[in-house]
Amino acid sequence: MQPATATLAADGGRVTLSGDWVLAQAPALAGQVERLRPRLDASTVLDASGIGRLDTAGATLLLRLGEDAGDTARLDGLGAHQRELLDAVARAVHAPAAAPPRPNGVVELLANAGKAVENFWHDLIELVGFVGLILSELAGSVWRPRRWRVTSLFFHIEQTGLNAVPIVALLSFLVGAVVAFLGATILRDFGATVFTVELISYSFLREFGVLLTAIMVAGRSGSAFTAQIGSMKAREEVDAIRTMGLSPVQVLVLPRVLALLISMPLLSFLAMIAGIVGGAMVCVYVLDISPGMFMYRLQEMTQARHFWVGMVKAPLFAFLIAAIGCLEGFKVSGSAESVGAHTTSSVVQSIFVVILVDALAAIFFMEIGW
Amino acid sequence: MSETVIEVRGLRNQFGEQVVHEDLDLDVRRGEIIGVVGGSGSGKSVLLRSIIGLNRPRAGTVRLFGEDMARVSAAQRHAIEQRCGVLFQNGALFSSLTVAENVSMPLIERRGLPRTLIDRLAALKIGLAGLPPEAGAKFPSELSGGMVKRAALARSLALDPDILFLDEPTAGLDPIGAAAFDQLILTLRDSLGLTVFLITHDLDTLYTICDRVAVLSQRRVLINAPLAEVERQDDPWIREYFQGPRGRAAEHAALAAKRT
Questions:
Q1: Domains and CATH numbers, chain A
Q2: Which helix (H) or strand (E) holds A18?
Q3: Which of A154, A177, A298, A344 is most buried per CB count within 10 Å?
Q4: pLDDT tens column, A240-260
């Protein structure tokens, strides 16, 4: 390959071009062309007879050189094929679209904040609407056993419930142990190590059992709902369901919502047990509280209402996670990228909503003295 | 006879028990538009993937520009790959990038080009592919089927390839869009001096722009010749394909177009 050059003759009237004007030479050539351009005028003749190979990159640079040196008709000595290529490029070329002016940073920040607030509001309204839709479909099909999708329901119970048992149990067990350690370290200074039992039972029955489960389920099952329904939406499967005269909410959403309503309380119960067992292990092996003592304090000091305070939240969280997961799935449009974006959004939203509702519930139960 | 740019000899492709190609030979000459036809599942796309190196054949050699692709060094292979542009069946545009960014990407990857030149070249390729300038700022999901094909064509032209591989370029386009795309390929071949390897089911495309037609059947290339010669072949599949109602209609249309 010959290095491409463009040389201006001493008298300034003629530019001699030579070498291969191809993409591989373009980095060096582009600099030469830009340096030459201000020194050319309309009378300059471009002598292209020395050009070996020419491609569209070379032709673009030739045209750029020609812009100032009159027009390309002033190009001498170009072969017929090369002339054809140059003409094709000249016809196709249009100035690259000007980049839109960059907005002021502060203005952009405010605009984005405004957009985010507006989106939040819209999401909220959509969620409330969707919850209403689920409830009305549920009411419509609950008296018609023929419309129950039992196979689908059990499939989703297995997916969201049974398959989540190991991870939920392990996680709660570990958190239970950590809480026991933390509590014991502080309570020991007051000589109140034995209250570790209450710390574990209160926290797991009221909060951690159901909250840890909800976070795991949001990450495991909420995201799966979004991805499943989203990819069905992207491939027009949801539209196909509609054209068969079926309701997508009934076919896709109800089995998932009901499955979570069943599995979440069971998983929460499991998480409470696992957490308390984790705490008990630490009490027995590290804090020298005997298993009998642990059980005695658990029975004597912890009232059953703490369990119900925790448990009553499980179906509520389950419903919210399933509704958000399915709704985000229906919002998917077209591309695979959109599936990913909505899956992320679904997990973030469900965890946010779960923690928000949990905080509100905590205040409520405190106020009524439970 | 002009130089052979693609030379396939004794190609064998096999997936599990299923043999797709056996002892397949194919030659493509510089500057011609070759149309590859064959029934569904006859291995047209596999042949394309074998030639461009996405699929390693069980046996046989593929030579591009006279180089045996199985024996060249990595650097040589890379250089040869840059001389091939590929238009995948569904466009394969990167969905997170705009059309202009899609076209610029191979140019940016070849370091050293100034940004202004890259933008110019990208705009040029978008224009060459017959898209309006404002299409450059759009994302692939905002384009119609025909525009996606054109944008993908613009990207495959980014590095000024010598050979253009097109996998069913007119599939899914309306007849007007398909005819315009045919003309576009013809124009690009003439002005850029491309060699075009074209897989198609579109009989109109075969009759309008292909210099030669390779028929893929019974695991090999049955015949690779100008269309008139292919039509005269005494093979049941070929007869069915070209003498069926659709084949005849396309032939009439092409003849009528040539007369006017």
A1: 5-92 (3.30.750.24), 145-367 (no CATH)
A2: strand A14-21
A3: A177
A4: 988 888 889 999 999 999 999
